[in-house]
């Protein structure tokens, strides 16, 4: 299979770190760039984490500084000291060095994405695994480049049951207006939401087995971060949005019309799926409904070990 040109948009984040390793090491993905935004931690942390991971992976992939806040909420600041499964700085107990050899690309995310899509002969897959802010900014600024988007394979959303509220998933909740813009942009969308990432269970025992089979600093960082994160939430969400491009058998999807709820309250940011197509509107999303956990972990664990 020919490799797929792709840009990964991250908010690194423990599960983002595994997604970066998978995208960078899979021979089926030609990783052309990374964009780091706010999300699992504030922008300065997610950017530093992303740069550090590319250094540990030994890949020369440009990293762009993305958005520090949501599309329509310029005053948003992350809550300090909130204990979550990503820890204070994004990688759980592991902290990226303050000084790194790599520096971010000197472009705004819109110009960065436009340059990559313009230079690519083939349409490029965008893989957002954090808030959809930078993808939304891009499709608004450069609708002329929509035909150069092969697919937007995103981690986010939930057709049935959320993780921020009973209805809403975290990435979409972080920037609902951006999500509404992206879901309505007309590019092909694959939604790896909680409906399918709930199948991507990774246990502490699986991480320890992986640690025993791996060598090198990257694997150590991923296993240390992963052990912390999985002790709180046993689901490794983000790599599924990458894995489904590498192996179509990883994900089962259904085509449906999906809308984003923007009404204030506990439904704000809900991905409302018309499961029975009652509205009769054209489907805009391939909704992931189930994942194959064995095939998923086979890819992710091989990426960590460097045996893909
Ligand atoms: Ca993420």
Automatic annotation (TrEMBL):
It comes from Bittarella massiliensis. SUPFAM superfamilies: Nucleoside hydrolase. InterPro entries: Inosine/uridine_hydrolase_dom, IUNH, Ribo_hydro-like. GO terms for molecular function: purine nucleosidase activity. The keyword Transport does not apply. Keywords: Glycosidase, Hydrolase. This is Pyrimidine-specific ribonucleoside hydrolase/ribosylpyrimidine nucleosidase. Pfam families: IU_nuc_hydro. PANTHER family: INOSINE-URIDINE PREFERRING NUCLEOSIDE HYDROLASE, URIDINE NUCLEOSIDASE. GO terms for biological process: purine nucleoside catabolic process. Gene3D superfamilies: Ribonucleoside hydrolase-like (3.90.245.10). Residues 10-298 form the Inosine/uridine-preferring nucleoside hydrolase domain. GO terms for cellular component: cytosol. The keyword Lipid biosynthesis does not apply.
């Amino acid at each position: 299979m020919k490799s797929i040109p792709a840009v990964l948009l991250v908010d690194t984040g423990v599960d983002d770190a595994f997604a970066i390793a998978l995208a960078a090491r899979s021979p089926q993905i030609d990783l052309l760039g990374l964009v780091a935004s706010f999300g699992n931690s504030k922008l300065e942390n997610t950017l530093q984490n992303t740069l550090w991971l590319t250094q540990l992976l030994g890949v020369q992939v440009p990293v762009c500084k993305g958005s520090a806040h949501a599309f329509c909420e310029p005053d948003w600041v992350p809550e300090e000291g909130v204990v979550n499964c990503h820890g204070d700085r994004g990688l759980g107990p592991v902290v990226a060095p303050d000084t790194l050899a790599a520096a971010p690309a000197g472009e705004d995310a819109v110009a960065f994405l436009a340059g990559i899509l313009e230079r690519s002969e083939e349409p490029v897959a965008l893989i957002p695994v954090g808030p959809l802010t930078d993808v939304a900014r891009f499709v608004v600024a450069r609708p002329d480049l929509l035909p150069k988007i092969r697919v937007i394979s995103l981690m986010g959303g939930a057709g049935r049951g959320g993780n921020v509220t009973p209805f809403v998933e975290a990435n979409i909740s972080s920037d609902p207006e951006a999500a509404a813009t992206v879901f309505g942009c007309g590019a092909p969308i694959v939604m790896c939401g909680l409906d399918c990432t709930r199948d991507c269970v990774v246990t502490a025992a699986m991480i320890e087995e992986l640690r025993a089979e791996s060598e090198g600093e990257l694997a150590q960082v991923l296993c240390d971060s992963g052990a912390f994160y999985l002790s709180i939430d046993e689901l490794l969400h983000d790599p599924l949005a990458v894995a489904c491009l590498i192996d179509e058998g990883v994900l089962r999807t259904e085509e449906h019309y999906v809308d984003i709820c923007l009404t204030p309250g506990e439904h704000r940011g809900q991905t409302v799926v018309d499961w029975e197509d009652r509205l009769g509107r054209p489907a805009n999303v391939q909704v992931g409904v189930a994942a194959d956990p064995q095939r998923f972990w086979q890819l992710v664990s091989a990426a960590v070990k460097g045996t893909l």
